[in-house]
Structures are given as C-alpha cells and as structure tokens.
Design a protein that fits this description.
two-stranded parallel ribbon; globular
Length: 227
Amino acid sequence: MSDSGLSDPFPPLIQALHHQPLLVVLRAEQPLELVPRLTALAALGLRHVEIAWQNHPRWVAQCLELRHVFPQLRLGAASVCSLPALQMVQEAGLSFAMSPVLSPELWCEARRSGLALVPGVYTPSEVQQARALGCPAVKLFPASALGPHYWRQLRAPLGDLPFCIAAGGLRPADVLPWLDAGVEAVALGGGLDGPGGVECLRSLLGRLPPSPPASAPPGSPLHQRLH
C-alpha cells in the first residue's frame, strides 16, 4: 500500500512484465503522431509501451485519446524527471512512469498518488538507495554501457535485488542475452528504428520466455509487496 492508502500499483505492473518481459519506448512531440506505430505494435501482440514525456500543451489530452484508442496496450510514460512531468503523467491516467534518474522527491510523490514510478539506477550505491526507499522495481540505465552480466554481478555483494528493467541503447538482438543474464525485462527504443524493426520485433515476441518470478526472501518488505 502507498502512504495515501491507495492500492499498490507495482504488483500488476510486475505481473504483466512477468508475462511479457518487453517494453517499447516511442518518442514524438505530439503523442497522436504515434498512432501508426502503436497500431503496428498492437497488431504484433506487444503489450507494454512507454510514451516519452514532452512538455507539450496537448500531451495529456493526446495520451488520454491514445488510451481510448488502444485499450489493449499498457501505456506508460518515459523520461519522467520532474514533478510537473509526473503530474502530467497522472493527469493522462497512464499505467506507470519510467525515469532515467533516482529522485527521492519523485518517488515519494508517485507513492503518495498511487502511481508506479520505476526509477533509473546505474551504480551499486544507487541500487542500494532505491532499495532503502522501498522501490520494488528499477530501470538499469543506460544498460548498453554496462553489459548484460553487470546486474548479476551485483547480487553477491548486495544480496536480493529489485525487479530490473534493462534500458538504454539496446537492440532486439540484445533482449534474450540480457534476460538470460538475469534481468527481468528489457526496454527497446531507438534500436527499433530503421527498416526491418517491426519484423525483428515480430520474431522476438515469438521467442520471448516468461520472466522468472522476482526473488526476495520470505517476510522481507519486497516479498510482502509482490506476494
């Protein structure tokens, strides 16, 4: 539960990502420009899409329209780094928000309002800080600079780790190696641009394994949030 008494938004998000451990990040100044790409992604059977936040006066209204047009998609926001951006995500009614940074201020506000905000981490110290804040899930960013075995190497010194979404500079060919190396989900963005991107994604979706259950010792706060 969040401090406001609202139901915890993380178990539904994590459960959905266990079922399909892949997200796609789309960027456009105006979200309605993404309709053709969202139509193609929905036809492939993709379920999780992040729409990059933009400081545009119609961003909220257009995201609301996309939610109406694509009810089969779990739409979230990417690149959320400020309280005004977080407020716009809430007004748009998006399912979750992703941030490239770890901000206690953003985390506390998101928890207060019942929004699943996944913060960005890069170093062991940031992972430890995220755990101290109570974050059930983190975004490893930019993952391409670290390599697929980085996350697993943190387990020995740090112990049980949060649910991890690897993001930043990854391509379709990177998804299965990263999942095999121990992260629970992968986000793709610019790596899908260019000819053949949709076909690569079609092939990838057919080979995706369900993500293994997140590990946490029984009785721990993380275990209690996820079970």
